[in-house]
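Can't paste images in this forum, so I'm doing it all in text. The chain is below; anyone willing to post the predicted structure tokens underneath?
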Amino acid sequence: MKQKLLLLGAVFFGVLAFMFTFHQISLEKSKIQGGAHDMYLIQVTRDLAENDKITEDSIREVKIRRFRNANDGGREIEYEKKNMVIGREVRSLIQAGSLLQWTDLKTSLSSGRSGLTSLVRPGYRAISIPVDATSSVTGLVQPNNYVDLIGTFRFPDARGDSALDTITLTILQRVRVIATGSDMGLLVGSGNQEMRSRGYSTVTLELTPKEVEMIIFATQKGRITLSLRNYEESAITKELQSVNWDYLQKNILNYTRERETMMKSGK
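Text version of the structure:
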């Protein structure tokens, strides 16, 4: 009887150990699967010899499941970046079916004619200024938008008072935004989709050389805010104002009347 109990106990604990081991294996498997993700990479469709150029028909998109700590993740090229490799020469033989890697491509010097410089019109200059969520209209300003530049500064009071007076005024109107962060608003892919920056801390503006000097000075002395225009509006407002505390107090009622008139006229 005692031997039977021992045997049953051994079987019971054996089954229990098996269940525990199976549970642990299942947990580890889930962790491994959770650490993997699908990547859409560039695969070579035909053999490429040394100095051959990558063409549209020599590559294709392929879905590969990769673990997040895979060593090749930084060398293999995502398919969404295919426009960055088409036209590039390869270093050595690449066999059909291979995944294209950055190390397969020859490095070449830029001609200096591509990138941001190609977007700047003759007679203008590109300059970047810092912005935050508020001054960039919650980050909704995009490349090729037009904005007005509004500056807020603290100056000695015009009457000679030593106390500082805050003033806000429009510095420039209808300024073209060339880029937000590193996003230049370029169309990519066959579907002509635009790549949008998730967030940015600078905007690049197209200005004349004299305006560049003024805006650099203004950014050092105060805060610049972007005021976004309708894409069809090109008018320049002639009657502008410089707003300080006294001006604001005296003209609040005028602002209210002007807005009421515009609302009645349907504007």
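The two ends are 99 Å apart (CA to CA). The chain has a mean pLDDT of 82.
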